[in-house]
Amino acid sequence: MRVLLLCCALMMIAIPVGAREIAGVDVAETLQSDGGTALHLNGAGIRKKLFFDIYIGQLYMEHPSNTTEGILGAAGQKRMIMHFLYKKVEKEKLTAGWDEGFEGNSTADELPLLQERITQFNSLFVDVKKNDVVVLDFSPTTGTRVVIAGEEKGIIEGKDFNDALLKIWLGKKPVASGLKKDLLNYKK
Which of 8, 135, 179, 182 is most exposed, with the fewest beta carbons within 10 Å of its own? Predict the structure, then answer.
């Protein structure tokens, strides 16, 4: 009996506390921003297209919420992580997806104000391969920093841009309704 209890105790120590696994990828419950601010997992899930798993989307926030309005209205830092599962996604497909997402979730008044920054954002992308990670890190003081496979590509200014970007996953026409539900899965 003692051996069984000891084995159970050792197994509990070996399991990372505050982490979960999705498609073989560890998803942390809390991350630290570059400035040391704690960012909490709002939700995570898999972006699927047809029969293929494309990426794991993870949304982290300083002040999590389980509604789109709460997320867009929240002060503080936000981080969207895309951990790619598919063998290769070409730049052209990524940017076409971004364009479709911005157009489908932004108003006719918003799009002209965003267009120059959307073009700048699209220019930062490259082909991504399996296990590449795209980090879209928003800070209210600087904007949305884009990091692809560990390399900082640039920063897009404006909270309005980050709100439009997050609506690609959380808006009225999300990239995938199942992923939207997963990203809004914050439990207090």
Answer: 8
- Do residues 140 and 77 lie in contact, with contact meaning Cβ atoms separated by under 8 Å? yes
Q: Report the C-alpha gap between 116 and 69 in whole angstroms.
A: 25
Rounded Cα gap, residues 105 and 110, in angstroms: 10
Structure tokens of 182? 């997963």
pTM listed for this prediction:
0.88
SS (H, E, C) 162-177: HHHHHHHHHCCCCCCH
Residues 120 and 185: their CA atoms lie apart, in Å, by 31
How far, CA to CA in Å, does 12 sit from each of 8, 17, 29, 88? 6, 9, 17, 36
CB within 8 Å of 159: residues ≥ 6 apart:
138, 140
- pLDDT score for 35: 85
Which residue, among 118, 131, 122, has the nearest Cα to 94 in the 3D structure? 122
- Asked if pLDDT for residue 67 goes beyond 80, the answer is yes
Listed in sequence order, the residues at least 6 apart from 110 whose beta carbon sits closer than 8 Å to its beta carbon are 160, 164
Q: Which domains does the chain have, with CATH numbers?
A: 19-183 (3.50.70.10)
